[in-house]
Amino acid sequence: xxxxxxxxxxxxxxxxxxxxxxxxxxxxxxxxxxxxxxxxxxxxxxxxxxxxxxxxxxxxxxxxxxxxxxxxxxxxxxxxxxxxxxxxxxxxxxxxxxxxxxxxxxxxxxxxxxxxxxxxxxxxxxxxxxxxxxxxxxxxxxxxxxxxxxxxxxxxxxxxxxxxxxxxxxxxxxxxxxxxxxxxxxxxxxx
Length: 191
What we know:
Blueprint: H1 7-20, E1 24-28, H2 34-40, E2 45-50, H3 56-63, E3 69-73, H4 76-87, E4 93-96, H5 106-116, E5 121-125, E6 138-139, E7 142-143, H6 146-157, E8 162-166, E9 184-189
Parallel strand pairs: 1-2, 1-4, 2-3, 4-5
Antiparallel strand pairs: 5-9, 6-7, 8-9
């Protein structure tokens, strides 16, 4: 769902984009393409992948005619491997949002980052932030939180060599159309 239903997420990424000035974003979990469309107006290049072919028609309609979006259908770790090779550097944002129900590719996605030795700006949607009423993903006894990704982040950036932040409470004054504020975890190297 991402940027189409969570105004605070867009406010957050615009803030970080201004700070880092990266012009490429990779999104895992295209869903219907709403976030990809929004991101295409902010970034020079949007890479997005979706494993569920049932969304192909909706995605095609949503992003038809937008030249700076590249869509790939397949598993997010496979898509990331291809795109990391194509991009050839780590000056990009990596928006991880392909997790759903029992399908949690986050550990495999982060392993691709480790395998390439990249240190991009990573943000993980549906992340536990500790804000009352904010939604996050969990499955069984697993909660999408810092403890779940810490080991991989330590390998990506180095222990104590990265910043970890979570979504801030909204101060933008915008009404949330679907009342669906979902947490986001932000990880980036210390500068």
